């Protein structure tokens, strides 16, 4: 895999809403230096260019839905609908924007970290903090899966090339 882009978004001044940033900081020390890690308050159109350069994009976000402390990972795909500039974009909308502007469709996943405390402050709930190691593990699983897919595709290409008749 050539390029991983990790985008953590949320508000670090709203308790658990900032847990994605905390997970990103943990990953910063464990991922290869070629990984681009971005922490933002919200997803904006400017991210489309960075996304277009990635092979794998992982979005990290806190969530008010789900069991606190139990992260969920799901594949996300570009939504191809008319682009309307607004205050907040979803991962699907940013991927759609990237596809329309750069004709790029990287593999993408959203890891949601359900929280329980979203009031003003910088203190995380214990369940949110306990979820961070699981997020780290999930990112490494995604990278491993992508690496296997790339290797499988490369092997298929070399097999098909070896079966082609030579031009002698």
Structure, described:
This protein has 168 residues and is an alpha/beta fold. The chain has a single domain (4-163), classed as Rossmann fold (3-Layer(aba) Sandwich), CATH 3.40.50. 39% of the residues lie in helices and 18% in strands. It has 4 helices and 5 strands. The protein has helices at residues 19-28, 47-52, 91-102, 126-163; strands at 4-9, 36-40, 56-63, 72-75, 107-114. The protein has a 5-stranded mixed β-sheet with strand order 2-1-3-5-4, covered by helices on one side. Helix 1 links the parallel strand 1 (4-9) and strand 2 (36-40). Helix 1 (19-28) crosses helix 4. The radius of gyration is 18 Å and the shape is globular. The mean pLDDT is 84.
Quick structural summary:
With 168 residues, the chain is of the alpha/beta class. Helix content is 39%, strand content 18%.
Question: Strands, helices and their partners?
Answer:
Blueprint: E1 4-9, H1 19-28, E2 36-40, H2 47-52, E3 56-63, E4 72-75, H3 91-102, E5 107-114, H4 126-163
Parallel strand pairs: 1-2, 1-3, 3-5
Antiparallel strand pairs: 4-5
What is the name of the CATH topology? Rossmann fold
| Overall outline | globular
Q: In the residues, how many domains can be counted? A: 1
pLDDT average, as an integer? 84
The major pleated sheet works out as:
5 strands, mixed
**Secondary-structure element sequence?**
EHEHEEHEH
Give, in spatial order, the strands making up the sheet with the most strands.
2-1-3-5-4
Beta-strand level of the residues, as a percent range? 15-25%
CATH superfamily: HybD-like
Give the name of the CATH architecture. 3-Layer(aba) Sandwich
Helix content: 25-40%
Structural class: alpha/beta
